[in-house]
């Protein structure tokens, strides 16, 4: 790497552009839809986001679960779509709502990774 990048650009990248607030926190309200076919079934996520927080979320697909998926949707409303989302999903037994799905798969679908 060049010295200029290390001394100037890299710190700016870390202090400003890599922060959640820069990438999501100041965003206007928007709608997003993403879908994917997994070995356990098809899953579609539609959501409304404002200032980086989920306002409304709908999970649809041809999957099975022991619990109502609506309960999972309600748990995710109001959550920041960054680290807060991943931490919450890791505490929830996602496969109880979407059989075969893990927290990482749902996180990546929501974050459009």
How does this model look, in words?
This protein is of the alpha+beta class. It has one domain (27-111): Enolase-like, domain 1 (2-Layer Sandwich). It is 42% helix and 25% strand. It is built from 5 helices and 3 strands; from the N terminus they run H-H-E-E-E-H-H-H. The chain has a 3-stranded antiparallel sheet, with helices on one face. The longest helix is centred in the first third of the chain and has 15 residues, at 3-17. It is elongated and about 50 Å long.
Topology:
Elements: H1 3-17, H2 20-25, E1 30-38, E2 41-50, E3 53-61, H3 69-76, H4 83-91, H5 103-111
Report a brief summary of the structure.
The protein has 113 residues and is of the alpha+beta class. The chain has a single domain (27-111), classed as Enolase-like, domain 1 (2-Layer Sandwich), CATH 3.30.390.50. The protein has helices at 3-17, 20-25, 69-76, 83-91, 103-111; strands at 30-38, 41-50, 53-61.
Q: What is the helix tally?
A: 5
CATH topology grouping: Enolase-like, domain 1
Mean pLDDT, nearest integer?
87
**Series of H and E elements:** HHEEEHHH
The named CATH superfamily: CO dehydrogenase flavoprotein, C-terminal domain
Highlighted features:
113 residues, alpha+beta, Enolase-like, domain 1, 25% strand
């Amino acid at each position: 790497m060049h010295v200029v990048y290390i001394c100037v650009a890299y710190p700016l990248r870390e202090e400003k552009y890599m922060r959640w607030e820069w990438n999501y926190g100041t965003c206007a309200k928007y709608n997003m839809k993403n879908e994917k076919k997994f070995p356990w079934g098809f899953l579609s996520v539609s959501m409304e986001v404002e200032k980086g927080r989920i306002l409304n979320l709908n999970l649809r697909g041809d999957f099975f679960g022991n619990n109502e998926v609506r309960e999972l949707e309600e748990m995710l409303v109001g959550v920041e779509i960054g680290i807060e989302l991943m931490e919450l999903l890791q505490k929830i037994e996602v496969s109880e709502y979407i059989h075969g799905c893990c927290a990482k798969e749902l996180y990546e679908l929501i974050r459009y990774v």
